Automatic annotation (TrEMBL):
InterPro entries: Macro_dom, Macro_dom-like. SMART domains: A1pp. It comes from Streptomyces solicavernae. CDD domains: Macro_OAADPr_deacetylase. Residues 1-170 form the Macro domain. This is O-acetyl-ADP-ribose deacetylase.
Length: 170
């Protein structure tokens, strides 16, 4: 069955979906941007679960390009899937790592049985990835991934990001 790709301009923490993807960092202990917003609105249960994951599996941190799930706390979702995007580099092509974030998150979603998954524009904020390229990689990768997820909803914070994703969905 094919996955339906949808776009929303808004705040990902307000979405009602099975899983919300977080653009985290490898510490899994929170940060700014969408990560900060998810922990703020989702409450301390998410951080507790992240600490447990660090203790049990990721003492050295979650590697870039990988994904792992926790409770979604008070968010209107069952799970948060934390993925670590690469920092943008003008010298080194890290596109494969960014694509890996989407593939790994969808793999985790499939393992959980999630049918609706919301993604932010991973790496396109604090990590500096140019929005048009981030949107291209996101859309191409999701389209090219075999998954049972029925809806992938890209939730773009501002108009610029929304337009970049709209252009890719064409
Ligand atoms: N809903 C949807 N999108 C959002 C929201 C929100 N509530 N808030 C921000 N964005 P960023 P990164 C957009 O910086 O580039 C954190 O400190 C934002 O406008 O959140 O992957 C982590 O802990 C941008 O388009 O993530 C890491 O250290 C997109 O989400 C680092 O930032 C991603 O921006 C990760 O940086």
């Amino acid at each position: 069955m094919s996955t339906h790709l949808t776009l929303v301009q808004g705040d990902i923490t307000q979405q009602s979906v099975d899983a919300i993807v977080n653009a985290a960092n490898s510490s899994l202990l929170g940060g700014g941007g969408v990560d900060g917003a998810i922990h703020r609105r989702g409450g301390p249960e998410i951080l507790d679960a992240c600490r447990d994951l660090r203790a049990s599996h990721y003492g050295k941190g979650l590697p870039t390009g990988q994904a792992v799930a926790t409770t979604a706390g008070r968010l209107d979702a069952r799970w948060v899937i934390h993925t670590v995007g690469p920092r943008y580099s003008a010298d080194t092509d890290r596109s494969d790592l960014l694509a890996s974030c989407y593939r790994a998150s969808l793999r985790v979603a499939d393992e959980l049985g999630a049918r609706t998954v919301a993604f932010p524009a991973v790496s396109a904020g604090i990590y500096g990835w140019p929005m048009d390229d981030a949107a291209r990689i996101a859309v191409e990768t999701v389209r090219g991934t075999d998954t049972a997820v029925e809806e992938v909803r890209f939730v773009l914070f501002d108009e610029r990001a929304y337009e970049a994703f709209t252009a890719q969905l064409g």
